[in-house]
Design a protein that fits this description.
Layout: H1 7-10, E1 25-26, H2 38-46, H3 49-52, H4 59-69, E2 76-79, H5 81-93, E3 99-104, H6 109-116, E4 120-125, H7 134-140, E5 145-151, H8 163-172, E6 177-181, H9 185-188, E7 202-207, E8 220-224, H10 226-234, H11 243-254, H12 256-280, E9 284-285, E10 291-295, H13 300-309, E11 312-313, E12 315-316, E13 326-330, H14 334-350
Parallel strand pairs: 1-11, 3-4, 3-5, 5-6, 6-7
Antiparallel strand pairs: 2-8, 7-8, 9-10, 10-13, 12-13
Helix pairs in contact: 2-11, 4-11, 5-6, 5-10, 12-14
Length: about 375
C-alpha cells in the first residue's frame, strides 16, 4: 500500500510561472513595476512586534475596503490574492458532476481550481480576433453549469467584455456563480461592483498586485451578495490574509494620488507601445489592461531571448489557445516605457525581424 493523491489531483496540470532568473526590468508578469506607495513603506517600517505575534484580524480591513469600493462590509471578503477568491468560489459552488465554463485563452487558475473539485470544465474558444465569445459561451451553459469565470479585461489578450454582455450572462445562468475577475480594473475603469445587489449569483474579484504594487503581500478581495458571501466564508480560513498586509492596506487605499499617477503612466505607455506596433506593421490586440499582446510568429523565441539579453523580460504566450506566436509585454512607469521603446527596435533589428500581419489563430 502506498499513499496516493485523489485521481482528480493526479490528473491536474500544474501551473508553472517562469519565476527563475527574473533579473532585469520585469515586463513579463503584469505586476506594478514601479513599486508601492511610500506610505505603505513607511507603515512597514513602523510595524510593531504585536502585529507579528498575534493572529490577524481581517474585519477592520474589510470595513476599509468596503468603504473604499462603496459596498457593504458583509458583501466583501479579503482573500490571499485574487487566486484564493477563485479557489473559494470553486470550493463553494462546485462538486463532482458539475460543470464550469470559461472562455480561452484566459487565466489558467480558473480551470485548475474548477477541475480540482471533480467538476468538468467547458472551454469556449475566443473569436478569431480574440474577442470574448458571449454567444458561444451561452450555448454551452446548462443546468449543470455552476461556475462561470470571466476575466474583464482578459489576460493575456487585454480584451474587455461590455456590461450588457456580462449582465446577459449573469441573468441567463441564475444557477451558476458568475465571477467577473476585475484584476485589471484600474486600467479599464469599468466595473460590475454596483450590480452585486441586483444579481445574487454575481461575484467580483479584485487584486492589489497590479496598480497598487502589492503583489508580494498576496492580497485580493471577493465581493458578492451578502447571502452568498456567508456561504463562501464557510470555506475560507479566518486567518487567510497576513497581518502585515492588513496593517498596510489602509495606507495603500488612502494614497489615491499614487495609484492614479501610476495608472496614468501605464495608460500612456500602453498607447505608445500600440503606436509603435502600428508603425512597424506588427499585429497587436488593443488592450484595456496594463499590457499589450502582439504577434511575432516564428521570431517569438528569438525576440524574448534578445530582450532578456538586453535586460528586459517579456512573456511568451505561445502556449495559450489562439495565441500561437504571441508575446505579451507589461507597461510600467514613463521612464520604464522609454527604455522599452528604445530597446525594441534594437532587439528586432538584431534578430532580423520582418513583420507579418497574419493572425495568431490562422497559424494554428
Amino acid at each position: 500500500m502506498t499513499l496516493r493523491a485523489s485521481k482528480t489531483v493526479e490528473g491536474l496540470k500544474e501551473y508553472h510561472p517562469p519565476l527563475g532568473g527574473r533579473d532585469g526590468l520585469r515586463l513579463d508578469f503584469n505586476e506594478n513595476v514601479g513599486g508601492c506607495s511610500p506610505r505603505v513603506l513607511a507603515k512597514l517600517r513602523a510595524i510593531s512586534t504585536e502585529t507579528l505575534n498575534k493572529y490577524p484580524e481581517r474585519e477592520p480591513g474589510e470595513r476599509a475596503i468596503a468603504a473604499h469600493l462603496g459596498v457593504k462590509p458583509e458583501e466583501v471578503l479579503l482573500t490571499n490574492g485574487a487566486d484564493e477568491a477563485i479557489h473559494l468560489l470553486a470550493e463553494t459552488y462546485l462538486e463532482a458532476g458539475d460543470q464550469a465554463a470559461i472562455a480561452v485563452p484566459t487565466f489558467s487558475m480558473y480551470e485548475i481550481y474548477a477541475l480540482a473539485t471533480g467538476a468538468r470544465v467547458l472551454t469556449v474558444p475566443s473569436a478569431p480576433d480574440l474577442a470574448f465569445p458571449t454567444e458561444s459561451l451561452l450555448k454551452v451553459v446548462g443546468p449543470k453549469t455552476k461556475l462561470i469565470c470571466i476575466a474583464n479585461p482578459n489576460n493575456p489578450t487585454g480584451a474587455a467584455v461590455s456590461r450588457a454582455e456580462l449582465e446577459t450572462i449573469v441573468a441567463a445562468a441564475p444557477q451558476a456563480a458568475v465571477l467577473v475577475d476585475e484584476a485589471y480594473f484600474d486600467f479599464h475603469g469599468k466595473t460590475m461592483l454596483d450590480a452585486i445587489g441586483r444579481f445574487e449569483n454575481l461575484f467580483v474579484a479584485r487584486t492589489f498586485s497590479k496598480a497598487f504594487g502589492l503583489a508580494g503581500f498576496r492580497m485580493g478581495m471577493l465581493a458578492g451578495a451578502a447571502s452568498q458571501m456567508k456561504l463562501v466564508r464557510r470555506v475560507s480560513s479566518p486567518y487567510n490574509v497576513n497581518g502585515v498586509a492588513l496593517e498596510c492596506l489602509p495606507e495603500a487605499l488612502a494614497d489615491r494620488e499614487f495609484v492614479a499617477n501610476y495608472v496614468e503612466q501605464v495608460k500612456r505607455g500602453r498607447a505608445e507601445l500600440e503606436a509603435f506596433y502600428r508603425r512597424r506593421g506588427i499585429r497587436y490586440w488593443p488592450s484595456h489592461a496594463n499590457f499589450v499582446l502582439a504577434y511575432f510568429g516564428e521570431y517569438r523565441v528569438a525576440f524574448t531571448a534578445e530582450m532578456r539579453k538586453r535586460g528586459i523580460l517579456v512573456r511568451d504566450r505561445h502556449g495559450d489557445p489562439g495565441c500561437a506566436g504571441c508575446v505579451r509585454i507589461t507597461l510600467g512607469t514613463g521612464e520604464q516605457t522609454e527604455r522599452l521603446l528604445r530597446t525594441l527596435p534594437e532587439a528586432l533589428s538584431a534578430i532580423g525581424f520582418r513583420p507579418s500581419m497574419q493572425s495568431a489563430e490562422s497559424t494554428r
